[in-house]
Specification:
Length: 818
């Protein structure tokens, strides 16, 4: 079928009623999808959503577009595909109701034929709303791609090509191509389905054909069993892919007859195995999951899932040592899945954050009983041909998992997934605390009152959460919910890992959500226990909303209201602050510590605790990490005390200042893979040298920035696509003339874009700010800022940056048509 982007030519704005929405208001703006209708609204301390959504408000929005439908389409089947509309989407064509979708992350298709006016303009309007329905920043609107799809009455069904690889080794792979064909005509048709499989070089490696007869108004499937010799298998280190070209033609036509329909399907050949002795095996090789939980927002762009933003995030996560992502807590976008396929990132795709019991007043639980099957179908259909997807999660911290009746919901969900796709595994991210909500009041210091938010409760309990999660009470109450799964997902309950191998010897465990600072002990448990498949940290990438989850507060600043009764921080807190990588894509010190613990980093890494806060009493949450920066440029007096951590897997680390030895200490005295030094700040060159068995294994150097200041501006790529899927990310840093980062001399920077592009987003990794992503100015954070530039057509784009006391600097990007 003919498929094209439907992303351009929209207007969007606030909505009131269907009557008012039918006419564009004065606040409507031209937009290109994907788009987030909330990101540019005014944040404030008094908004009803509060810290959950980063102090962004909710709202009711409409999107409108006019499009022509040629007369030639009268005999065609016309569909619109929406990959995600948040939330409670309602679609109208020519002001007639066409479709509804409550779930903001589910892909759905609309058959337009009954509502179209051929040979003249047609209108489409999409309404969306968001209000007290999310525990994190959701954004709102048409936040994922849209497509116009046109085909003949006899055609390959939408998502009608499904490919499995039931057998594969180095010599031969069996590839089964199942093709569903639809006949919307009034008479019987006999068609021919032909598929050829091409490798990365375009060489045909297998092909087959079969006839299929369809009665009027029916569909039928043709199944081709093909064989690929010496296959290039897909895995995390070698993400080899093939393309299946499937052609539908009239069986009665000659061999050169014109194709009625054609689909190109990219897939990978790989096998999955699971058992307690070997854990997870991909192509026969055991793989431990070095996992990152990620939310769906793309930082500077809000909820807009522009393909390049999704791809860049996966690139950075992979480079940081992760080999798997968990889509918390909703299905991953198609763009992100495509990137995971290309780059070799495994995916745990998650369906729901709530079933029948709500976590927010107007969340998806209101629609779950009626819509859950269709939403599971949408997730599985979307994922089926993506080799990166190895596991489906049916939920996250679901209240029902601790009751017998609740476990029947888990059974329904798990069996529905298996009915749709029996080639992958099923898990559920079970939190022992959430599973027994009736026990919680007495658990919190024996009181009948306490934190009502789960994150606040976990903070209040501290290390007790592990003890409670491993209790006999939780074991008994969650046994049935775990029994319906292939893999037991466990949130914040690593104390279960070893005992469960005895109590439940057939149980396989996955740490579906864990504290970032515990990775040293967690990874030891993963490495030493074959039945423990891996670890997913909360979180790999920082996100908007749940503001303050990973914060550090200094108590002499005065008590904060939320510190006493909850975990979330007060306005203008913006992000959770718990990601290994901040919302701009900059790796924070925790990322380098994790890479060291994983055994993937040989070079030491220096993380300096902010000397201006040395010795101050702190409040930190279980998701916090040290308030440290990899810098030796500080605005404090020489001689000020400073704590220096060096992350290393070596035996010892020596610290030098201007080549003069300061101290040599053993690694692990403070914490595994950390050598801690108490020193005094003196500008100069700080060097950490790592030693194993007395032999140097690597060194890291930090240099203080000089007084001269200049802007370093660079685009991530010099050439991008001139379409609605691409972006240029332009980094802005404050350097001295020698290229040293001046992290202590933040400035307000102004960014101007000329040429065929717009400034799509501008910001930093600062967790507390009132600055807007849609502004053309922002204040650097630790010497850095990031701009996202979106092309509007082909040509040369200039990104000019200015800051007080610095010569202006420019980055040039060329947007080219495919």
């Amino acid at each position: 079928m003919f498929r094209q982007s439907f992303n351009r030519g929209w207007t969007a704005g606030p909505a009131e009623t269907s009557f008012a929405s039918a006419v564009a208001g004065e606040n409507d703006q031209e937009v290109t999808l994907p788009h987030d209708a909330v990101r540019d609204l005014e944040r404030g301390a008094a908004v009803s959503e509060g810290a959950h959504t980063g102090y962004f408000p909710g709202g009711y929005f409409h999107y409108s577009k006019t499009f022509d439908v040629p007369e030639a389409f009268r005999d065609k089947s016309v569909f619109l595909e929406f990959e995600g509309v948040y939330r409670d989407a309602v679609v109208y064509i020519n002001e007639e109701f066409v479709a509804q979708r409550p779930n903001g992350y589910s892909r759905f298709n609309v058959q337009c034929d009954p509502y179209l006016r051929y040979g003249q303009p047609n209108s489409i309007r999409v309404e969306a709303r968001a209000h007290l329905d999310s525990r994190w920043y959701s954004g709102a609107g048409i936040h994922r791609d849209t497509h116009l799809i046109v085909g003949d009455p006899v055609h390959i069904a939408l998502d009608g090509v499904r490919i499995t690889t039931p057998q594969a080794d180095d010599e031969l792979a069996v590839v089964v191509v199942a093709v569903t064909v639809v006949n919307e005509e009034r008479f019987t048709r006999t068609m021919r389905v032909s598929t050829n499989i091409a490798d990365a070089d375009g060489t045909t490696v297998a092909e087959g054909t079969a006839p299929v007869t369809l009665l009027p108004g029916t569909s039928a499937s043709a199944r081709l069993r093909l064989h690929v010799p010496r296959p290039a298998l897909w895995d995390v280190d070698s993400p080899n892919r093939y393309v299946a070209r499937t052609v539908l033609s009239d069986a009665n036509a000659d061999a050169d007859g014109e194709a009625v329909d054609e689909e190109h399907t990219t897939f990978g050949i790989r096998t999955l195995q699971l058992d307690p002795a070997h854990g997870l095996r991909i192509n026969g090789r055991t793989v431990k999951l070095r996992g990152a939980c990620i939310h769906h927002d793309t930082g500077l762009l809000g909820a807009a899932a522009i393909s390049r933003a999704e791809e860049r995030r996966i690139e950075i996560l992979k480079a940081a040592g992760f080999n798997a992502v968990r889509s918390a807590h909703n299905p991953l976008s198609v763009a992100a899945l495509d990137a995971c396929d290309r780059l070799g990132m495994l995916v745990l795709d998650e369906a729901f954050d709530a079933w029948t019991k709500p976590k927010r007043p107007f969340d998806y639980s209101l629609a779950f009983p009626e819509w859950w099957e269709r939403d599971v179908e949408a997730m599985v259909t979307k994922d089926f041909n993506h080799p990166s997807v190895i596991m489906y999660s049916i939920g996250n911290e679901i209240f029902e998992t601790g009751s017998p009746v609740g476990s029947t919901w888990g059974r329904r969900l798990a069996e529905k997934v298996r009915e749709l796709d029996d080639t992958r595994f099923v898990t559920n991210a079970v939190n022992g605390l959430v599973a027994v909500p009736d026990e919680l009041p007495s658990l919190v210091v024996g009181s009948t009152e306490g934190p009502t938010d789960i994150n606040s409760l976990i903070t209040a309990l501290g290390e007790k959460i592990n003890e409670f999660s491993a209790s006999q009470l939780v074991s008994e109450r969650t046994e049935e919910s775990h029994a319906v799964l292939d893999v037991s997902g466990i949130n914040y309950g690593d104390a279960r890992y070893v005992p469960d191998s005895i109590s439940f010897p057939n149980r396989l465990i996955l740490g579906t959500e864990t504290f970032p600072g515990h990775i040293d002990e967690l990874w030891r448990l993963v490495s030493e226990n074959s039945h423990v498949l891996g670890d997913f940290t909360w979180t790999g990438w920082d996100y908007l909303g749940e503001s303050g989850v990973g914060r550090t507060d200094y108590l002499d600043d005065g008590p904060k209201e939320d510190m006493l009764g909850g975990i979330h921080d007060v306005f203008p807190a913006l992000t959770a602050g718990c990601g290994d990588i901040d919302i701009t894509g900059h790796r924070r010190p925790m990322s380098y510590y994790r890479e060291t613990v994983f055994g993937l980093r040989e070079q030491p890494y220096i993380a300096v605790h902010r000397p201006e806060s040395h010795g101050r009493a702190m409040f930190q949450t279980p998701w916090s990490w040290a308030d440290a920066v990899s810098s030796w440029s500080w605005d404090v007096e020489a001689g000020s005390p400073v704590t220096v951590d060096v992350y290393s897997s070596a035996d010892e680390v020596e610290l030098l200042l201007d080549s003069a030895p300061l101290e040599r200490v053993k690694v692990g005295g403070h914490k595994a893979c950390i050598a801690r030094f108490e020193s005094a700040y003196q500008p100069g060159e700080l060097t950490a040298v790592a030693y194993r068995a007395g032999v140097e294994t690597g060194r890291c150097v930090l240099r203080s920035a000089g007084a001269d200041l200049r802007l370093a501006v660079a685009a991530d790529r010099s050439e991008i696509g001139a379409d609605d899927k691409d972006l240029a990310y332009v980094s802005v840093e404050l350097h001295d003339s020698a290229g040293n980062l001046a992290s202590h001399r933040d400035r307000q920077v102004r960014v101007d874009v000329t040429g065929p592009a717009v400034l799509a987003g501008l910001g930093t990794g600062r967790t507390h700010t009132e600055e807007r992503f849609d502004a053309d100015t922002c204040t650097t954070f630790d010497g850095r800022a990031m701009a996202a530039v979106r092309p509007t057509g082909p040509g040369t784009i200039h990104v000019r940056v200015r800051a007080e006391g610095c010569p202006e600097a420019t980055a040039t990007v060329h947007a080219v048509e495919a």
